[in-house]
Design goal:
The chain is mainly beta. The protein has one domain: Sandwich (Jelly Rolls). The strands form three sheets. It has a seven-stranded antiparallel β-sheet, with no helix packed on it. Strands 12, 13, 14, 15 and 16 form a five-stranded mixed β-sheet that branches. A four-stranded antiparallel β-sheet has the order 4-9-6-7, with no helix packed on it. α1 links the parallel β15 and β16. The longest helix is centred in the last third of the chain and has 6 residues. It is globular and about 40 Å long.
Length: 200
């Protein structure tokens, strides 16, 4: 099935929503997938998602371009840059905001990335909220021929991302300079729910 993203307003910013859609409410633990950008903003435009609550899930934020400042009700205040991962587990409840960092607010800027909502296992839905930031340098990355891989979250190919997921899943970035067919492996897909991002 091929599904085209649909526009969704998350405050003062339009994202392309890939999940959910009418025929599919979730894929394994993945319940929302928002594709941010690529967007090019003038010096008077900023990404500003006001403080809002989450409960019973985790959010994963991953950027290809730009920068977002995350602040939440458990005291986290972190800037995320391309290649790094923000993983927030809401559990019994957390409030957070996401904004263009102060030092970029009056400059031309770009933003491109994903935010993915991941449902928590039933026994963790009321856990204490937590936040984990993983720097880009700590994300497993490797090359096979002309294909570059990054294991953004989860376990795959004998590697494990330090992002603290709570279910059997993996989120993999695959980059290739040429169009080609890549085999991920049926047995791996049967063991874990996956989300792959492919860029040529």
């Amino acid at each position: 099935m091929i599904h085209e993203e649909q526009a969704a307003n998350i405050g003062n910013f339009l994202v392309g929503r890939l999940l959910p859609f009418r025929e599919k409410r979730s894929v394994g633990p993945f319940v929302f997938i928002d594709h941010m950008g690529p967007a090019y903003m003038k010096d008077y435009q900023n990404f500003d998602v006001a403080a809002h609550p989450h409960i019973g899930l985790s959010t994963l934020t991953y950027l290809f371009e730009g920068s977002i400042f995350h602040r939440d009700s458990i005291g986290s205040a972190v800037e995320i840059k391309p290649g790094a991962v923000n993983w927030m587990t809401a559990g019994k409840g957390v409030v957070h905001s996401e904004r263009t960092p102060e030092y970029l607010r009056h400059t031309d800027k770009s933003l491109h990335g994903f935010q993915i909502w991941v449902g928590l296992p039933a026994e963790l839905e009321d856990c204490e909220p937590s936040f984990h930031h993983t720097e880009a340098a700590d994300i497993p990355a490797w090359q096979e021929g002309d294909i570059a891989y990054k294991l953004i979250a989860g376990e795959a190919f004998g590697r494990k991302s330090p992002v603290p997921v709570h279910s059997k899943l993996f989120f993999l970035e695959i980059k290739s300079a040429v169009e080609q067919t890549i085999s991920i492996g049926k047995d791996l897909l049967e063991k874990r729910q996956c989300m792959c991002w492919k860029a040529l």
